[in-house]
Design a protein that fits this description.
GO cellular component, one term: plasma membrane
Distance between the termini: 57 Å
Number of domains: 1
Radius of gyration: 26 Å
Structural class: mainly alpha
Order of helices and strands: HHHHHHHHHHHHHHH
Family: Belongs to the binding-protein-dependent transport system permease family.
CATH topology: MetI-like fold
Number of strands: 0
Shape: globular
Main location: membrane
Pfam families: BPD_transp_1
Protein name: Sugar ABC transporter permease
Strand content: under 5%
Largest sheet: none
Helix content: over 70%
CATH superfamily: MetI-like
Length: 306
């Protein structure tokens, strides 16, 4: 009677169970190291100012407090207005960015487009060279007259050369030319082909560049600093930066005025700083799971160099 050969415990991917467990532990540690800083920021934002002054930063503070959030709640009118502006700019700006980027990338991805090489190089050059802040400011304010308007927060980020290259590669690898030719034979025009055939096939790529664009708009404060003077159009990130600057001003100049000294003592400076980080991070972080299903596939397919 033949002896049966002992089969080693190997999983589907070709690794032994011990090796698979080892890599899972390594990946879990890396994931925890990415999440831990944000958890620590949340803990600090819930720590009392007295505990921070005496004990410093701790994972389990001796005294918990919501003073940082209470101070920001006292400014809720301005913060809610800035949050509305930021959400509006992020949603509308992302739509504008995706439309411009996807149509540009689709055009230069088609071999039948005569000037695809020129426009590809044109997009690549803008990634390497920039006119600078002064020409951009002159164009936005003097030529386009967009200063102190909502479009001053949208148009500067309306087109991304990096996203164009990602989508160009994605279209070339994921949309076969045979499908495009079949649509043309059936009488479909370029716009109908793009909307009804190409876009449904490009959902992972669209989700990827949408996430990139949304992050850029959400975190943008510099355009608000340059172009916005009205308090009703200030974005959230710029408002939080102004609050931070005001706290620093009161702290550094407390000796000059009794009023500043009294105000500086009542404001929980460190907790407020961390609370601002939490407020500005949580909304955009909460949207990531909705894009995660498409994000990895879109980035890996669109990011391959051809």
């Amino acid at each position: 009677m033949k002896k049966r050969k002992k089969v080693s415990s190997v999983n589907v991917r070709g690794f032994s169970k011990k090796t698979d467990l080892f890599f899972n532990i390594i990946i879990a540690l890396i994931a925890f190291s990415c999440v831990f800083p944000f958890i620590f920021v949340v803990i600090i934002s819930l720590t009392s100012e007295h505990s921070l002054a005496v004990d410093g930063y701790q994972l389990w503070p001796s005294e918990w407090s919501l003073d940082g959030y209470r101070y920001l709640y006292s400014l809720r009118g301005k913060i809610l207005q800035a949050l509305f502006i930021t959400v509006f700019v992020t949603v509308l700006g992302t739509l504008v960015n995706v439309v411009f980027t996807s149509t540009y990338a689709y055009a230069i991805s088609r071999p039948t487009f005569q000037y695809r090489r020129f426009f590809t190089i044109f997009a690549l050059i803008t990634m390497l060279f920039s006119a600078g802040m002064v020409p951009n400011y002159i164009v936005m304010t003097n030529m386009l007259n967009l200063k102190d308007t909502i479009w001053a927060l949208i148009l500067p980020l309306a087109l991304s050369p990096f996203n164009i290259i990602v989508m160009r590669t994605f279209f070339r690898r994921s949309v076969p030319d045979a499908i495009i030719e079949s649509a043309r034979i059936d009488g479909a025009g370029e716009l109908r082909t793009f909307v009804q055939i190409v876009l449904p096939l490009a959902v992972p790529g669209i989700a990827t560049i949408s996430l990139f664009a949304a992050l850029a708009y959400w975190n943008d404060w510099f355009n608000g600093l340059l172009y916005i003077q009205s308090d009703n159009l200030v974005p959230l990130q710029y408002l939080l930066m102004k609050i931070q600057n005001n706290i620093d001003f009161m702290t550094k100049n407390a000796a000059m005025s009794a009023t500043l000294a009294a105000a500086g003592e009542t404001i929980p400076k460190e907790a407020t700083r961390m609370a601002m980080v939490v407020i500005s991070t949580v909304p955009i972080a909460a949207s990531y799971p909705f894009f995660q299903r498409y994000f990895i596939s879109g980035l890996t397919i669109g990011g391959v160099k051809e």
